[in-house]
Structures are given as C-alpha cells and as structure tokens.
Amino acid sequence: MPNITRHRNPWVVVGVCSTLVLLFWGSSIRTWVSGSRNDLENIVLEDPSLDALFRSTDELNQLYVDEPRAHEHSIKWSDADGIPETRVFAHFPGFTVLQNVYTLNGTLFLVTEHRKRLPSLKYMLSAYADVQGGQTLVDLPTHGHIRAIDHQTARQLFGLSARELRGSTWLSNDPLAYTDESFVLEFLRTHYMQEHRAHFNTSILPPTRILFPRISNTVQHTIPGLSSIPRLLFPSSGVGFKEDWEDYVSAHRPFVLETVVLIDRSAAARNPKLTSNPDQARAYFEIGSPMALFRLVNDGWWTFWRKRMADMVGIETTSWHGETTTSVRPVITYISRQERTTSRLDAEDHQQLVDQLKKLRTSHGYEVNIADPTNISFLERVRLALRTTVMVGPTGSDLVDAMWMNPTSLSLLLEFFPDNYISSKRIYVAKTVGVPYLAWRGDRVWGPKNR
Ligand SMILES: *[C@@H]1O[C@H](CO)[C@@H](O)[C@H](O)[C@H]1NC(C)=O
Ligand SMILES: *[C@@H]1O[C@H](CO)[C@@H](O)[C@H](O)[C@H]1NC(C)=O
Ligand SMILES: *[C@@H]1O[C@H](CO)[C@@H](O)[C@H](O)[C@H]1NC(C)=O
C-alpha cells in the first residue's frame, strides 16, 4: 500500500452517484463493465490432481469416529510405529487441513513414511521476519519452521509421548500486516474445501481454538475482529496470540494438534497459477487472489454464518429487493478514511461525494451513512454492514466489512483506487460471499465475471 494515496478525480464522485441511481433504477451496469472475458474462461481452478492426496473418504471419516478420551491429556506410544501419522485432508496452496500435526520448540512437524504424499512445504507455510521500519519480510520456510520427518526421527525428537491439543485448531501463520478480518472467511472456506471430496461433515466446526502465533497480544486490538468475530460466531472457542503460542514453544515439549486448519497468505501467493501483475488489470482481478482459485461451492455456505452473526448482533437480515416503499429502502454506506493519513480521498472529492450522497437521501429516499470505522465500535461496523445495500470507499482493509452484506444482485461493493495502485483483496472477499463488486480507478471501472 502506498503511503499516501490521495485521489483527485471529480469525475469519480459524479460517476459514483449517477451509478448508484442507475443501479437502483434497474439498468444493467454490470453488463456494461463486464465486457469480453473469454480469454479467462479456461483458467484452472482448484487443482483436481491434488485429489490424489486425499485417498479415500474413509480417511476423512476417521476424523469423526474417535470417542473423546476425556481424561487424557497426552498421547503415549511405546515405539516409533505407535506415533500417529500426519494426514492431509485438504490442501490448496496456502490453505491446508491436516490431522496429527506436531509442534516442538516452535517448529511444526509432519510425521509420515510417505513424504511424497505431502504437499510441498512451501505451499503450506512461510517464514516471516520483522525488519526495521515496520516492514515484514517473507521467505520460504526452513527446517526451523516446518519439517517432514519419519517415525524413527519422530521417536528420537519427541520421546515417548506428546501433549495433546484435542479438537480442531485454526492456525493463521500471517503477521499483522497481512491479516484482516476476512480471516474467518478464509478458514471457513478452507473447511468447505472438503465438500468436494467427501460428504461435508460439520463436526470439526466450531474450531476449539484459533491461534495467531505471529500477532502479539499488544497489537491485536488494531484488528478488533480477531477476537470479536470468534466471540460472536464461536463463543466457546479460545483465541490465542503470539504470547500464547510461546507458551507451547517454551515448554520444550512436543504437542500434537489433532486437527489443524492452516492458512498462510504468502504460501497462497506462491501458487504458480496466480497472476501478480496489476498491469494486466483484468486478469489480475480474475486470478489475482488465491481465493479465486477455489472451486465454487454451494452459494448458501456463507449465508449460515452471516445469519448467525446477524442473530448475535441483533440485526434482522431482511434486505432491500427493489421495492419502492418508504419502510424498506436501499442503504448506502460510505466508508470514509478522512481522519487518516493513508488511502483517503482528496478533501474536495470527499466533500463532494458526501454532498451528492446526501442529495440522494432527499431526492430518492435512500438511507445514507457516512462511517469512519475508527470512530465506531466493531459491533456497530458489523451491524451497519449487515444492513448495507451498497458500500463505497477508498481502498483499504475496512472494506472487508462487505463480507457481512446481504449478497443480492442489487447489492454492490465499490472500491476506489488511486492511479498507481490496485489490489485484488476485496474483490475476492466480495466474490467469495456473492456480493457484486466494482473497482474504480481513474476513468476505468472493473467488475468480475458474473458468478
Ligand atoms: C528444544 O529446545 C530445548 C531447549 O533449548 C533443547 O534442549 C532441545 O534439544 C530442542 N529440541 C529440538 C528437537 O530442537
Ligand atoms: C459426521 O460424521 C459422523 C461419522 O461419519 C456421523 O456420526 C455424524 O453424524 C456426522 N455429523 C454431521 C453433522 O453430519
Ligand atoms: C471521528 O471522530 C473525530 C474526533 O472525535 C471527529 O472529529 C470526526 O468528525 C469523526 N469522523 C466521522 C466521520 O464521524
């Protein structure tokens, strides 16, 4: 993200407001922006050849058949063969579901005699280093981060037992700079990968614990959803940060994690099928994000979680379907960043946008909200997003709130970009939950292929 991304483009402001009017008038602006995309029709999505890794549904079922051994906190074995093998239940670069993952001194160990059946470690995990100036360096994982070992080596390193972390653990390996509130979407979507391979079985949800080993307790409040979203969606799950993870590390004892959903955005970005060249803007928007490479799943999968969030925060999930009554009307939310120094609109443009939106309120009866996410609480943000029909704002992670919007064909997320920057992060949040999306940069507008 550039340091200061000020926009100066009056056309945008006028354009945005006419667009909103057109949109609600039923005119199909989405056909206008979608253009021809035949060249992208053949992009390979979630790689079917990986199915070979997940040998049979029987293995998946083993996840659910073990009776909990309520009074045991350790797994013991008397020889190397007794060490439970690591299994891969679903994998896609950056998104992995594993069973029996070991950790000792902060290293993840995968125990197997069949090294070749494991996905490449660089597609599971990354190494991150903080350097001066608040930058984060990304590198390939080393032996100190993740290692595949055979049973004999495991026996030598672990001894004859490991403490057990039962149930399912969500492990987000991303540092703060790469994390936003869409983590919940990524984890859940990773769970739903299994839908393709076996009958989906929800019993590994909710997660027993959600760990962010690279994010310190002292900074996690900068992304309030990291602890608030789990509290609301999975009230009985524990959330842990760097300091909590270090308790496991400094115990210098092996732990075995029963089921792990592991996400790592940099590992995801290594997917050779991704285009990282923003100059090819259309292709970038189609395949610029790993989320794009997932196969489509049943549209309803996210509805359940959205509804649960709405229930928790006390919002009725009725939405606007184009009626003209005064009681049900479209809700337009402008996520303003004017109080901040980065990624904000030019002051004049901002004022013009606000004035135009207010006019829409008088002339068309729309509900218009101008919200600065730094001024309102997490709950207020989520409540607003759940009710919002159209969300507009300059590029930034605040716009991931769109994941709570009701995904109808009349809803829209509209993201403004400065001339020198483009990002595909939000388009995939919107696309993953089914909210139509438009990116606005200069005099160009991009939208994704219709779902
Ligand atoms: C883990 O750390 C302890 C203490 O530093 C050390 O004695 C032990 O050899 C380490 N084990 C492994 C497998 O690295
Ligand atoms: C999950 O699978 C197990 C074993 O196959 C079954 O007993 C259980 O009812 C399933 N749970 C759900 C929610 O489908
Ligand atoms: C945010 O809060 C600041 C200080 O409390 C105030 O000056 C500003 O107008 C608020 N911004 C919005 C968009 O409400």
> What structural class do helix, strand and pairing data support?
alpha/beta
Q: Unreliable runs, pLDDT <50, ≥5 residues? A: 1-11, 25-68
Strand content: 15-25%
Bound molecules: 2-acetamido-2-deoxy-beta-D-glucopyranose
**DSSP helix count?**
13
Number of domains: 2
Transmembrane segments: 12-33
Organism: Serendipita vermifera MAFF 305830
GO molecular function: glycosyltransferase activity
Protein name: Glycosyltransferase 61 catalytic domain-containing protein
Give structural notes.
- With 451 residues, the protein is an alpha/beta fold.
- The protein folds into 2 domains: 4-26 and 278-446, no CATH class; 73-269, no CATH class.
- 28% of the residues lie in helices and 21% in strands.
- It has 13 helices and 17 strands.
- The strands form 3 sheets. Strands 1, 2, 3, 4, 7, 8, 9, 10 and 11 form a 9-stranded mixed β-sheet that branches. A 6-stranded mixed β-sheet has the order 13-12-14-15-16-17, sandwiched between helices. It has a two-stranded antiparallel ribbon with strand order 5-6.
- Helix 1 runs parallel beside helix 11 (347-364) and helix 10 (301-313) crosses helix 12 (378-387).
- The longest helix is centred in the last third of the chain and has 18 residues, at 347-364.
- The radius of gyration is 23 Å and the shape is elongated.
- Bound molecules: 2-acetamido-2-deoxy-beta-D-glucopyranose (3 copies).
- One 2-acetamido-2-deoxy-beta-D-glucopyranose binds at residues 104-105, 157, 252.
- One 2-acetamido-2-deoxy-beta-D-glucopyranose binds at residues 336, 339, 370, 372, 375.
